[in-house]
Write a structure and sequence with these properties.
alpha/beta, Thioredoxin domain-containing protein, Thioredoxin-like_sf, signal
Length: about 180
């Protein structure tokens, strides 16, 4: 009986030791799939945002449910803008993989978060609904037009129809002033 107790104790101790050798990790979330027209950035390639084009960057994390939900909208936006507006780049940066960079350098407080960059500098943060393609499309095309000094397509259409002539949108003026 005494021998059985010693063997059982040794067995329990060895099982505990073996379990302690295994890292305690949570199951990894599946990565949000890449899109052919969305540029994937890292903390090392982020300097690409200084290339003279307007960059609409989504900061995301694979574990973020809303990031997963808007992935198709961001992809559709990138597909549309690649064909119609080569001066606008839709990109994304995984803050789960570049946590220090997102928190300390870019100051991302939550995901998803979308920001516009021009010449490597933050111009404006997108604060509207992520789930409406038309809102995102209008925001980025008008913001890019304002930043680049072009007439915004929607503003020109409104002026032709007699609506909104002479009105300024402070949000877009702030984006240009930030540069």
């Amino acid at each position: 009986m005494h021998k059985s107790l010693i063997i059982a104790t040794l067995l329990v101790v060895s099982l505990c030791f073996a379990a302690a050798q295994q890292p305690l990790t949570s199951p990894k979330q599946a990565k949000i799939p890449a899109s052919s027209n969305v540029t994937d950035l890292t903390e090392y390639t982020f300097k690409q945002t200084a290339d003279g084009r307007v960059w609409f960057v989504e900061f995301y994390a694979d574990f973020c449910r809303n990031c997963r939900r808007i992935a198709s909208h961001v992809s559709m936006l990138a597909d549309n803008l690649t064909a119609t507006a080569p001066h606008i780049v839709v990109a994304r940066l995984n803050c789960e993989e570049a946590e220090r960079f997102c928190n300390d350098d870019i100051r991302i407080s939550r995901t998803p978060e979308m920001k516009v960059y021009y010449l490597g500098k933050h111009a404006i943060t997108y604060r509207s609904d992520f789930f409406f393609f038309d809102m995102m499309h209008e925001f980025i095309t008008n913001t890019a037009a304002n930043i680049l000094g072009w007439d915004a397509p929607d503003a020109a259409a409104a002026a032709a129809g007699g609506e909104g002539e002479g009105e300024d949108d402070d949000e877009y003026d702030d984006a240009a002033m930030a540069l």
